[in-house]
Amino acid sequence: MRQAIFSRTVVAAVASIGLSQPPPERGINPGPRQGHCLVYDGTLRRVVLLGGYQLSNQPALEEVWSFDGAAWGRLPGAGPAARSLCGAAYDSRRDRVILFGGVGSKGYSEPKSDTWEWDGETWRQATDTTVGTRDHHVMAYDSRRGRTVMYGGLSSRRSWATDTWEWDGAHWSRFSTPGPGGRAHFAMVYDSKRERIVLFGGLGDDDKYHADTWEWDGVVWRKMSDEGPPARARHRMAFDERAGVAVLYGGDGVKTQPGSGFRALDDTWTWDGKRWTQVRADGPGSRFMHAMAYDAARGKVVLYGGGSSDASFDDTWEWDGGRWLRVR
Known about the structure:
CATH class: Mainly Beta
Largest sheet: 5 strands, antiparallel
Number of strands: 34
Strand content: over 45%
Radius of gyration: 18 Å
CATH architecture: 6 Propeller
Number of domains: 1
């Protein structure tokens, strides 16, 4: 059982999700959704799902789902207001899932500026609201420095954010170091082998899809490559610790014809810190706005949900370093 240790900037709990309570409800899954987050909780030794668009039965409060490699289960209790297009990461030093921002059930008219932490039992809201409202951003935890890093997205008044923020468990700190520029619908992970945050692609404030790779070392952003996967947005990545590479799947590619809608992609790529390599393997199929996380207990990358131009998915897939397999 984890100790409930939080800084003074964290206020009282609004909901309790107890590991000593009845086990997760099993035999169900999170349902079709897009724009959700997956993180691996090292203490629970499970992948945890938060947020996302749901086509029906949208809950009023955030639900926590976990996946143990065999089945999904919804943990009892509820947390902050339900949302999508938020950022989430797991702080392995303090054993906390960090959740920030996003949009509520009313969409862009209900942007969020709140920071929450979940210790496996209880949600608590932090009092630091320095960042302001933000959505379409991405977060990743830098285990070397013990900081949760957030980049990009859309801030108040739907303006493009170009700043980098870090959360230390008590405060947000802003870095104005030049980097990838205004960016949304990109992917970002922490490369634990090379101890760098890796960012790829996304939709820029120039209204173009990008195919560039950047790294953040805690001081500066460096552009690493313009070569690799074709330009895209709404893709996802996870860092495969066993193979030592970042794994990218799918997304929304550049439209072949104006007005043709989204072009969902179905390709798999890996980044080793120097170059991208396309892996020829049948995968989960064309999709975007899915979620991915590396399950360190089982050495698998887990992918859940996402959508295409006319559908939302509720399927679970795993990548073992050589092939994708559907979990049924």
